[in-house]
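step=encode ok
step=design start
structure_in=
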Protein backbone atom coordinates (compact mmCIF):
# COMPACT_ATOMS: atom_id res chain seq x y z
CA UNK A 1 0.00 0.00 0.00
CA UNK A 2 1.44 3.37 -1.03
CA UNK A 3 1.73 6.47 1.18
CA UNK A 4 1.23 10.18 0.55
CA UNK A 5 2.17 13.12 2.76
CA UNK A 6 0.14 16.32 2.32
CA UNK A 7 1.28 19.48 4.08
CA UNK A 8 -1.37 21.96 5.19
CA UNK A 9 -4.05 19.29 4.98
CA UNK A 10 -6.20 19.90 8.07
CA UNK A 11 -8.86 21.80 6.12
CA UNK A 12 -9.83 23.08 2.68
CA UNK A 13 -8.35 21.57 -0.46
CA UNK A 14 -5.60 19.79 1.49
CA UNK A 15 -8.18 17.86 3.50
CA UNK A 16 -10.08 17.16 0.28
CA UNK A 17 -6.94 15.70 -1.28
CA UNK A 18 -6.45 13.53 1.79
CA UNK A 19 -9.97 12.12 1.46
CA UNK A 20 -9.48 11.33 -2.22
CA UNK A 21 -6.17 9.58 -1.65
CA UNK A 22 -7.74 7.55 1.15
CA UNK A 23 -10.61 6.62 -1.16
CA UNK A 24 -7.97 5.40 -3.60
CA UNK A 25 -6.52 3.07 -0.98
CA UNK A 26 -3.49 5.11 0.07
CA UNK A 27 -2.06 5.58 3.51
CA UNK A 28 -2.20 9.32 4.19
CA UNK A 29 -0.18 11.52 6.54
CA UNK A 30 -1.89 14.84 7.15
CA UNK A 31 -0.14 17.90 8.51
CA UNK A 32 -0.97 21.18 10.17
CA UNK A 33 0.97 23.72 12.17
CA UNK A 34 -0.64 22.82 15.51
CA UNK A 35 -1.85 19.80 17.42
CA UNK A 36 -5.43 21.05 17.70
CA UNK A 37 -5.96 21.40 13.95
CA UNK A 38 -4.37 18.00 13.29
CA UNK A 39 -6.63 16.35 15.86
CA UNK A 40 -9.74 17.93 14.31
CA UNK A 41 -8.75 16.65 10.87
CA UNK A 42 -7.99 13.16 12.19
CA UNK A 43 -11.44 13.07 13.75
CA UNK A 44 -12.99 14.08 10.42
CA UNK A 45 -11.13 11.21 8.74
CA UNK A 46 -11.64 8.66 11.52
CA UNK A 47 -13.67 6.35 9.26
CA UNK A 48 -10.42 5.45 7.48
CA UNK A 49 -8.91 4.02 10.64
CA UNK A 50 -5.21 3.25 10.80
CA UNK A 51 -4.57 4.35 7.22
CA UNK A 52 -4.46 8.00 8.25
CA UNK A 53 -1.88 9.59 10.55
CA UNK A 54 -1.32 13.19 11.59
CA UNK A 55 1.81 15.18 12.40
CA UNK A 56 1.97 18.79 13.60
CA UNK A 57 4.93 20.54 11.97
CA UNK A 58 5.92 24.00 10.76
CA UNK A 59 6.92 23.63 7.10
CA UNK A 60 9.08 26.77 7.22
CA UNK A 61 11.46 24.79 9.48
CA UNK A 62 13.76 22.28 7.75
CA UNK A 63 14.02 20.23 10.93
CA UNK A 64 10.22 20.09 11.25
CA UNK A 65 9.86 18.92 7.65
CA UNK A 66 12.50 16.25 8.25
CA UNK A 67 10.62 15.13 11.35
CA UNK A 68 7.36 15.00 9.36
CA UNK A 69 9.01 12.86 6.69
CA UNK A 70 10.68 10.56 9.21
CA UNK A 71 7.45 10.03 11.17
CA UNK A 72 5.62 9.21 7.94
CA UNK A 73 8.20 6.59 6.98
CA UNK A 74 8.30 5.21 10.51
CA UNK A 75 4.53 4.76 10.46
CA UNK A 76 4.06 3.55 6.87
CA UNK A 77 7.56 2.44 5.81
CA UNK A 78 7.91 4.54 2.63
CA UNK A 79 6.66 7.90 1.31
CA UNK A 80 5.68 7.57 -2.35
CA UNK A 81 4.05 10.96 -2.98
CA UNK A 82 4.62 14.29 -1.24
CA UNK A 83 2.30 17.28 -1.79
CA UNK A 84 3.39 20.79 -0.80
CA UNK A 85 -0.05 22.21 -0.13
CA UNK A 86 0.61 24.34 2.98
CA UNK A 87 0.23 28.04 2.28
CA UNK A 88 -0.72 31.33 3.89
CA UNK A 89 -2.98 33.88 2.28
CA UNK A 90 -2.79 37.59 3.00
CA UNK A 91 -5.16 40.24 4.35
CA UNK A 92 -6.46 42.52 1.61
CA UNK A 93 -3.85 45.24 1.99
CA UNK A 94 -1.30 46.85 -0.27
CA UNK A 95 2.31 45.76 0.03
CA UNK A 96 3.51 48.81 1.97
CA UNK A 97 0.81 48.32 4.58
CA UNK A 98 2.40 45.11 5.91
CA UNK A 99 4.79 44.87 8.82
CA UNK A 100 8.04 42.95 8.60
CA UNK A 101 6.79 40.03 10.68
CA UNK A 102 3.67 39.58 8.53
CA UNK A 103 5.70 39.53 5.33
CA UNK A 104 8.25 37.14 6.80
CA UNK A 105 5.57 34.63 7.83
CA UNK A 106 3.95 34.53 4.38
CA UNK A 107 7.34 34.20 2.69
CA UNK A 108 8.51 31.56 5.16
CA UNK A 109 5.48 29.30 4.67
CA UNK A 110 4.86 29.84 0.96
CA UNK A 111 8.47 29.80 -0.24
CA UNK A 112 10.67 28.15 2.38
CA UNK A 113 7.94 25.58 3.00
CA UNK A 114 8.09 24.56 -0.66
CA UNK A 115 11.89 24.54 -0.72
CA UNK A 116 12.14 22.32 2.37
CA UNK A 117 9.13 20.27 1.28
CA UNK A 118 10.82 19.47 -2.01
CA UNK A 119 14.42 18.89 -0.95
CA UNK A 120 13.67 16.68 2.07
CA UNK A 121 11.51 14.06 0.31
CA UNK A 122 13.65 14.25 -2.84
CA UNK A 123 16.81 13.23 -1.00
CA UNK A 124 15.10 10.09 0.28
CA UNK A 125 13.30 9.27 -2.98
CA UNK A 126 16.45 9.83 -5.04
CA UNK A 127 18.24 6.99 -3.26
CA UNK A 128 15.66 4.52 -4.59
CA UNK A 129 14.98 6.29 -7.89
CA UNK A 130 11.22 6.58 -7.58
CA UNK A 131 8.64 8.99 -6.14
CA UNK A 132 6.57 12.07 -6.88
CA UNK A 133 6.63 15.58 -5.38
CA UNK A 134 4.00 18.19 -6.18
CA UNK A 135 3.63 21.87 -5.26
CA UNK A 136 0.31 23.69 -5.13
CA UNK A 137 0.28 26.87 -7.18
CA UNK A 138 -1.90 29.91 -6.55
CA UNK A 139 -2.53 33.49 -7.59
CA UNK A 140 0.71 34.93 -8.95
CA UNK A 141 2.00 31.63 -10.31
CA UNK A 142 1.24 32.73 -13.87
CA UNK A 143 2.24 36.34 -13.35
CA UNK A 144 -1.26 37.78 -12.98
CA UNK A 145 -1.54 40.97 -10.93
CA UNK A 146 -4.33 41.60 -8.46
CA UNK A 147 -4.35 44.64 -6.21
CA UNK A 148 -3.95 43.95 -2.48
CA UNK A 149 -2.58 40.46 -3.19
CA UNK A 150 1.04 41.42 -3.92
CA UNK A 151 2.82 39.65 -1.07
CA UNK A 152 0.93 36.41 -1.56
CA UNK A 153 1.26 36.54 -5.36
CA UNK A 154 4.99 37.17 -5.11
CA UNK A 155 5.45 34.15 -2.85
CA UNK A 156 3.49 31.87 -5.19
CA UNK A 157 5.40 33.10 -8.21
CA UNK A 158 8.67 32.28 -6.45
CA UNK A 159 7.45 28.83 -5.41
CA UNK A 160 6.49 28.01 -8.99
CA UNK A 161 9.87 29.10 -10.33
CA UNK A 162 11.66 27.01 -7.70
CA UNK A 163 9.61 23.92 -8.53
CA UNK A 164 10.19 24.18 -12.28
CA UNK A 165 13.90 24.89 -11.85
CA UNK A 166 14.31 22.09 -9.31
CA UNK A 167 12.66 19.66 -11.73
CA UNK A 168 15.17 20.66 -14.40
CA UNK A 169 18.08 20.04 -12.04
CA UNK A 170 16.59 16.69 -11.03
CA UNK A 171 16.26 15.28 -14.56
CA UNK A 172 17.49 11.70 -14.59
CA UNK A 173 16.73 11.09 -10.91
CA UNK A 174 13.61 9.05 -11.63
CA UNK A 175 11.53 11.47 -9.52
CA UNK A 176 8.50 13.25 -10.97
CA UNK A 177 8.28 16.89 -9.89
CA UNK A 178 5.04 18.69 -10.60
CA UNK A 179 2.92 21.81 -10.14
CA UNK A 180 -0.78 21.68 -9.30
CA UNK A 181 -3.03 24.46 -10.59
CA UNK A 182 -6.37 24.09 -8.81
CA UNK A 183 -7.94 27.27 -10.17
CA UNK A 184 -10.44 28.93 -7.86
CA UNK A 185 -11.56 26.63 -5.06
CA UNK A 186 -14.24 27.45 -2.51
CA UNK A 187 -12.16 27.46 0.67
CA UNK A 188 -11.45 29.90 3.49
CA UNK A 189 -8.54 31.25 1.46
CA UNK A 190 -10.92 32.34 -1.29
CA UNK A 191 -13.44 33.82 1.14
CA UNK A 192 -10.66 35.85 2.76
CA UNK A 193 -10.24 37.79 -0.50
CA UNK A 194 -13.82 39.12 -0.42
CA UNK A 195 -14.22 40.07 3.22
CA UNK A 196 -15.38 43.66 2.67
CA UNK A 197 -18.12 45.22 0.57
CA UNK A 198 -15.99 47.32 -1.75
CA UNK A 199 -16.69 47.43 -5.50
CA UNK A 200 -13.49 45.41 -5.98
CA UNK A 201 -14.74 42.60 -3.72
CA UNK A 202 -18.20 42.60 -5.29
CA UNK A 203 -16.54 42.15 -8.68
CA UNK A 204 -14.45 39.27 -7.31
CA UNK A 205 -17.56 37.54 -5.98
CA UNK A 206 -19.13 37.70 -9.42
CA UNK A 207 -16.04 36.16 -11.00
CA UNK A 208 -15.72 33.48 -8.32
CA UNK A 209 -19.34 32.44 -8.82
CA UNK A 210 -18.59 31.87 -12.50
CA UNK A 211 -15.15 30.27 -12.20
CA UNK A 212 -14.79 28.63 -8.77
CA UNK A 213 -15.41 24.99 -7.89
CA UNK A 214 -16.02 23.02 -4.71
CA UNK A 215 -13.21 21.16 -2.96
CA UNK A 216 -14.35 17.65 -3.86
CA UNK A 217 -14.54 18.33 -7.60
CA UNK A 218 -11.03 19.75 -7.74
CA UNK A 219 -9.55 17.16 -5.37
CA UNK A 220 -10.81 14.24 -7.47
CA UNK A 221 -9.28 15.73 -10.61
CA UNK A 222 -5.91 16.57 -9.05
CA UNK A 223 -5.42 13.24 -7.29
CA UNK A 224 -6.32 11.20 -10.36
CA UNK A 225 -3.84 13.20 -12.46
CA UNK A 226 -1.11 12.95 -9.84
CA UNK A 227 -1.43 9.18 -9.84
CA UNK A 228 -1.07 9.01 -13.62
CA UNK A 229 1.73 11.62 -13.86
CA UNK A 230 5.04 10.50 -15.38
CA UNK A 231 8.27 12.09 -16.55
CA UNK A 232 10.61 14.55 -14.88
CA UNK A 233 8.12 17.44 -14.76
CA UNK A 234 4.37 17.89 -15.15
CA UNK A 235 1.87 20.68 -14.67
CA UNK A 236 -1.63 19.56 -13.71
CA UNK A 237 -4.22 22.27 -14.38
CA UNK A 238 -7.90 22.14 -13.53
CA UNK A 239 -9.16 25.56 -14.65
CA UNK A 240 -7.63 25.76 -18.11
CA UNK A 241 -7.85 28.90 -20.23
CA UNK A 242 -10.40 27.23 -22.51
CA UNK A 243 -12.56 26.18 -19.57
CA UNK A 244 -12.35 29.66 -18.01
CA UNK A 245 -13.40 31.40 -21.23
CA UNK A 246 -16.38 29.06 -21.59
CA UNK A 247 -17.48 29.73 -18.02
CA UNK A 248 -17.13 33.49 -18.39
CA UNK A 249 -19.28 33.38 -21.52
CA UNK A 250 -21.99 31.19 -20.01
CA UNK A 251 -21.35 31.51 -16.28
CA UNK A 252 -24.42 33.60 -15.52
CA UNK A 253 -26.61 30.76 -16.72
CA UNK A 254 -25.28 28.53 -13.91
CA UNK A 255 -26.82 30.84 -11.28
CA UNK A 256 -24.37 29.87 -8.53
CA UNK A 257 -23.83 31.90 -5.37
CA UNK A 258 -21.11 30.66 -3.03
CA UNK A 259 -21.58 33.72 -0.80
CA UNK A 260 -25.30 33.59 -0.04
CA UNK A 261 -24.69 32.30 3.50
CA UNK A 262 -22.25 35.02 4.47
CA UNK A 263 -22.80 36.82 7.73
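sequence_out=
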Amino acid sequence: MKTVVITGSTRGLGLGLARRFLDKGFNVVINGSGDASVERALKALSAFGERVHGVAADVSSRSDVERLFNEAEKRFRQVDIWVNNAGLGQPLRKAWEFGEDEISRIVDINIKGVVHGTIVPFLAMKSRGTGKIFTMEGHGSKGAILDRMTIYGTSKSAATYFTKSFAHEAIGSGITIGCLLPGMVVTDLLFDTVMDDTPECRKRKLIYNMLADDVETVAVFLVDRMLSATGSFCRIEWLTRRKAIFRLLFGKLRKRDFFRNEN
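step=design ok
step=annotate ok -> The chain has a mean pLDDT of 93.
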